[in-house]
Specification:
This protein is an all-alpha fold. The chain has three domains: 219 residues, no CATH class; 112 residues, no CATH class; 206 residues, Hypothetical protein af1432 (Orthogonal Bundle). 62% of the residues lie in helices and 2% in strands. A two-stranded antiparallel sheet has the order 1-4. Strands 2-3 form a two-stranded antiparallel ribbon. It is rod-shaped and about 175 Å long. It starts with a helix and ends in a 31-residue tail after the last helix.
Length: 704
């Protein structure tokens, strides 16, 4: 088991770690409208998908298309015609013709033998039809044919012939043959020319790639812009790759899944914001971390609002302006203090920024609204305070909307009116939720609100009515103590309403045995004279524990019950103790001081310390009946110094400066109770009607 100091140090950080884990989980896990859409190309859109914010991004798909177009626009680059190839082919043709001439001139060989000889010529490959025609052609016609072959070949090879254009070039050859040749001769000539035509312009890959690279480099990245509220894809429309890209760029889709890198910015923001809050609270309200219920109140309330924000804000146009973020700040401000409410609201805006993808309008909206709401609400002691806070919030919200949208060309009158209506409704909802939440959360987390204290301070409370009827002297004493403590609390900045209510109920335990307390005794009859000091002390001390039990039975807040237990601290019933010592012949060793000591604890807060001091000062001034301000001041100084020496103020966080202000406030208030009154001279007896016979007299009451 951890020791108390260790646990006190570790407890807030344990809760903080748990809060960080839960917060991160809420932000990054797929919940609400932030759930990643499981859409693929070809799927119909399940609903109208709109841009949650205005954004411009580089479209990788459109840029890639532009690059591909740039590549396709560059044709293949070929080298200039190689004359060496042309000369070589013409030379090969002439050699082949020479071989053909030798074969034709062999008079001893048969046609068949000449065909066989021609087949040995590797440069040409002729069908039997063209072989026979070549052999049997008349010499004069053959001379014309071979001249035509060389002419056409030289012309064709002088042209650039690319590899992919060879077939087209070969198809042109027949039309280049002279019309002087017969059809058969033209066919033979064309066939022989085609045998020697080769590409003379080769593909230059290096030059082509260089041209493509230059063209691609000139391509600018393609930007795609969307305005907030613009429809990306309508419901039922088939989704394309560009649609998916747009939704991804706007964080509507989550193609990266649950990668660690995606969580780092969120985790860093959460850690920084929470650490700042912790440091601020530790500096301004260190006692906060000793109250587990208060820590849980803030943490659980923040988680609830964070979860709600995750459902409402992302990918919405109007709903983010309806989200009652001001309620969180107001609930904490009224329950635990204005400063705490302000810092928590400010930190919560960081979470909203993450959830809303940094929409500056939404962030400013949920920053200004809660700030105005908290400042307008104040302590929230009246119901109409919440109404005024709601109106102030609505006005602040509307101002932010007008500031951001007044000159927006993309919004029309209807859109502006809708947002203004949402901002006004936000104020009303925030005020109503805060008022309702205070009653529910106050009881769940045992947090006492100003509104609850105002309700308890009413004199018709059953315990106060019983106190007035059973112990009227104690009732008057409680009222005086309440006035004393309230004035002092106001001067040092303590909770005035808490002090007042605590004072009204601090002595309710005296209703069990009212006659044993001097303020309720009549005709100087003191029942303590008939009992021993120990029993007498037990009865007096019991009013503290009895009062706490009564308060618990009536479901009084813990702070009030603590005030009842702490208002006497661990002091002793001095009068009974002195009698007991006297009865033992002043031998203190024979008297158990514990029998005369209040159970405590000593005051833990400035409010209960003020109650202790006010209770002591009021009782002593009434007992001593001072006649001057100096005597009152001496009494107040005596009570404060005595409680200091007894160590009763060691844990209440009151400084000496505060105690100086308390002394001045007590003296100022007590002076009004115990001032000297003027003694009026005796009046002559007037011949006027008495109270008893006034109804029988004709003289008017104004003459009495």
């Amino acid at each position: 088991m951890l020791s108390n100091p260790t646990w006190k140090i570790a407890r807030p950080w344990i809760i903080v770690v748990v809060f960080i884990i839960i917060s991160l989980g809420i932000i990054v896990l797929p919940v609400g409208t932030n759930t990643p859409l499981n859409l693929e190309i070809g799927d119909p859109a399940p609903f109208d998908i709109v841009a949650p914010r205005s954004q411009t991004y580089i479209s990788a798909l459109q840029t890639e298309t532009a690059i591909n177009n740039a590549k396709a626009s560059i044709p293949k680059i070929y080298d200039p015609p190689d004359t060496r190839v042309s000369r070589q082919q013409v030379s090969s043709a002439k050699s082949a013709i020479s071989f053909i001439n030798l074969t034709r001139s062999d008079t001893l060989a048969t046609t068949h033998q000449k065909q066989k000889e021609l087949s040995k010529l590797r440069s040409i490959n002729l069908t039997e039809k063209f072989q026979i025609q070549l052999i049997e052609s008349e010499e004069n016609r053959w001379i014309i044919i071979q001249e035509e072959i060389i002419r056409v070949l030289e012309f064709i090879m002088s042209l650039p012939i690319q590899e992919d254009q060879l077939e087209k070039t070969l198809q042109r050859i027949p039309i280049l043959i002279s019309v002087e040749l017969s059809i058969e001769e033209a066919e033979l000539a064309a066939e022989l020319v085609q045998q020697f035509v080769l590409p003379n312009s080769l593909y230059n890959e290096i030059a082509t790639n260089k041209a493509i690279a230059a063209n691609v480099e000139a391509v600018e990245p393609v930007e795609q812009a969307f305005t907030q509220g613009q429809t990306i894809i309508a419901r039922g429309t088939v989704i394309t790759a560009e649609d998916l890209e747009a939704m991804t760029a706007l964080n509507i889709l989550d193609p990266q899944g649950n990668s660690i890198e995606r969580y780092i910015p969120f985790l860093a923001a959460i850690l920084l914001s929470i650490t700042t809050v912790i440091l601020y609270i530790n500096r301004t309200q260190p006692s906060f971390f000793s109250q587990t219920r208060h820590i849980l109140f803030v943490v659980l309330l923040s988680i609830a609002f964070l979860f709600g924000a995750q459902f409402i804000i992302p990918q919405r146009l109007v709903l983010p302006f309806l989200f009652p973020a001001a309620t969180l700040g107001m609930l904490i401000a009224v329950g635990l203090g204005t400063h705490l409410g302000m810092i928590i609201s400010t930190a919560f805006v960081i979470f909203i920024a993450m959830i809303s993808d940094g929409r500056i309008e939404v962030v400013i909206y949920h920053l200004i609204g809660p700030m105005v709401a908290i400042l307008s609400l104040g302590k929230g002691e009246r119901v109409n305070s919440f109404l005024l806070a709601g109106l102030a919030t609505a006005a602040a919200n509307a101002s932010v909307i007008i500031a951001f949208r007044f000159n927006d060309p993309t919004i029309d009158v209807l859109g502006l009116s809708t947002l203004l209506g949402a901002s006004i409704a936000n104020g009303a909802i925030s005020g109503a939720l805060t008022l309702t939440g205070l009653f529910l959360l106050g009881y769940i987390f045992d947090i006492t609100t100003s509104l609850q204290l105002v309700e308890l301070s009413r004199p018709n409370h059953p315990l106060l009515v019983n106190l007035l009827r059973t112990a009227p002297g104690t009732y008057q004493h409680s009222l005086h103590v309440a006035n004393l403590a309230e004035q002092a609390a106001r001067d040092i900045g303590a909770n005035t309403m808490l002090v007042r209510v605590s004072a009204l109920f601090h002595d309710i335990g005296k209703t069990i045995n009212p006659e044993y307390f001097v303020e309720n005794q009549i005709n100087n009859i003191n029942p303590h004279t008939n009992i021993d000091p120990e029993s007498s002390s037990k009865i007096i001390i019991s009013h503290v524990t009895d009062g706490e039990k009564m308060a618990k039975r009536y479901r009084m807040p813990t702070v009030i019950r603590n005030a009842i237990l702490e208002h006497h601290g661990t002091t002793i019933t001095r009068y009974q103790y002195d009698i007991a010592v006297k009865n033992q012949k002043k031998d203190k060793t024979k008297v158990d001081i514990n029998n005369f000591s209040y159970p405590g604890p000593i005051p833990q807060t400035p409010e209960t310390a003020l109650l202790m001091l006010a209770d002591g000062c009021e009782a002593k001034t009434k007992a001593d009946n001072p006649s001057s301000i100096e005597e009152i001041d001496d009494i107040v100084r005596y009570i404060i110094n005595r409680r200091l020496k007894e160590g009763q103020l060691d844990e209440c966080d009151l400084s000496l400066t505060d105690l100086g202000k308390v002394r001045d406030a007590f003296v100022r208030t007590l002076k009004g109770y115990f001032h000297n009154r003027l003694k009026y001279p005796s009046e002559e007896k007037l011949d006027t009607p008495t109270v008893e016979n006034i109804n029988d007299d004709k003289t008017s009451t104004s003459e009495v």
